Amino acid sequence: MTAGVKRFGDGGQIAILGAGSMGRLWAALLPSSRCGFLPRLDSLGQTAERSNIAPEDGTGHRGSFSRLEGTPETRCEYVLVISASPDTGVARTLVNLPWLCSAADISLLLVTTKAGDTLSALESWLPYIAKDTPVVLFQNGLGSQQAVTERWPGRPILAASTTEGANRPEPDVLVHAGAGDTWVGPLTDSAYDYTESVVQQLAQSGLQVHTENSIVQRLWQKLVVNAGINAFTALLDCPNGAIVDAPLYRQTIDGLCTEIAALLQANTGERTAPQALRKRIEAVAKSTTNNTSSMRADVNAGRKTEIDFINGYLVQCGQRHGIATPVNQMLVQRVQAL
Ligand SMILES: NC(=O)C1=CN([C@@H]2O[C@H](COP(=O)(O)OP(=O)(O)OC[C@H]3O[C@@H](n4cnc5c(N)ncnc54)[C@H](OP(=O)(O)O)[C@@H]3O)[C@@H](O)[C@H]2O)C=CC1
Ligand SMILES: CC(C)(CO)C(=O)C(=O)O
């Protein structure tokens, strides 16, 4: 592996695939002259059929995106509400960014779809994007990242793990609800040389962005917390802090942490006692006591949850390593039944 820092077109476009809460947050804070959203190609089927032009078979270097030729540029407008800083109070800014009609000039791709949508969203766009364009995956949980790197092992693919919090109380309002940290690191071999440059570019947002060469380890740390909080909040329909007193949680958390400790060791080599994991989960539940978790929000809005990439991923790991995961299985089944 070479140790150099790869420069890539700093003047190129930063394209965001997934114009939801996370995508809109980064888009609003990165330099606006360089940012735009990639539309859903599935919703543009008619345009694609009419143009009748196929992508350059996997070379991705064609420099233009024929499918959307003739499509007028449309804009995505929303209000960014920053309630993250107790010092500055609430600030509002109008954001107006393009839906991109061309993939020609993309020098960095941020993927902010939900975990379950990531592979198909990338399947539709990557054939048009240059093969040396770094792709940063922002999904929570694990499993979707591996699916992407197995599908495109030669591309520079990175992952981000973030504790930023964003939500959309209304379609055209994006609330930056909690300032946090974002760690970015390489998943594929060719991504190593891009990491510093990607971190520098993301840091232009003003958010705290750090290089993390052990990004999978970092994703596991977040997975542990999500596995111990999200499903309980969805099943109990309560804010994060309320789970710790609920009988369902109190009766199953030690069993859950025993499963996670064994899986953590089998997958990453990290040895952490189940009690320490429980402490970590409860510290986050208490520090985010009034939060509605993403899974509770998804269930209440009738959306598909990310359970398959959180407790469901742990069940799959258990099957691979011969580790029993009855509590994780119970949580997956019960959330799926909601
Ligand atoms: N929000 C947060 O605070 C945090 C989120 N994360 C993680 O970030 C990821 C995104 O979360 P979040 O932003 O909240 O989710 P959202 O549901 O708000 O956004 C996902 C977006 O992806 C779009 N999308 C889905 N499929 C496609 C496709 N094929 N092509 C183009 N766009 C597509 C959706 O479009 P449509 O609206 O049309 O369905 C939606 O706008 C998740 O994995 C989440 O766990 C991590 C930390 C914090
Ligand atoms: C840490 C936690 C539980 C905060 O709400 C989260 O990441 C989520 O809701 O998905």
Automatic annotation (TrEMBL):
Stored InterPro entries: 6-PGluconate_DH-like_C_sf (IPR008927), 6PGD_dom2 (IPR013328), ApbA (IPR003710), Ketopantoate_reductase (IPR050838), KPA_reductase (IPR013752), KPR_N (IPR013332), NAD(P)-bd_dom_sf (IPR036291)
Coiled-coil zones: none
Keywords: NADP, Oxidoreductase, Pantothenate biosynthesis
GO molecular function: 2-dehydropantoate 2-reductase activity; NADP binding
A Pfam entry, by short name: ApbA_C
Domain Ketopantoate reductase N-terminal: 14-187
Domain called Ketopantoate reductase C-terminal: residue spans: 215-337
Catalysed reactions, semicolon-separated: (R)-pantoate + NADP(+) = 2-dehydropantoate + NADPH + H(+)
Signal peptide annotation: none
Enzyme class: oxidoreductase
Region described as Disordered: spans on this chain: 49-69
EC number: 1.1.1.169
UniProt pathway: Cofactor biosynthesis; (R)-pantothenate biosynthesis; (R)-pantoate from 3-methyl-2-oxobutanoate: step 2/2
UniProt keyword NADP present: yes
Superkingdom in the source lineage: Bacteria
Biological processes, Gene Ontology terms: pantothenate biosynthetic process
Any single GO CC term annotated in Swiss-Prot or TrEMBL for this entry: cytoplasm
Function: Catalyzes the NADPH-dependent reduction of ketopantoate into pantoic acid.
Family: Belongs to the ketopantoate reductase family.
PANTHER family with a match to the protein in the record: 2-DEHYDROPANTOATE 2-REDUCTASE, 2-DEHYDROPANTOATE 2-REDUCTASE-RELATED
Protein name: 2-dehydropantoate 2-reductase
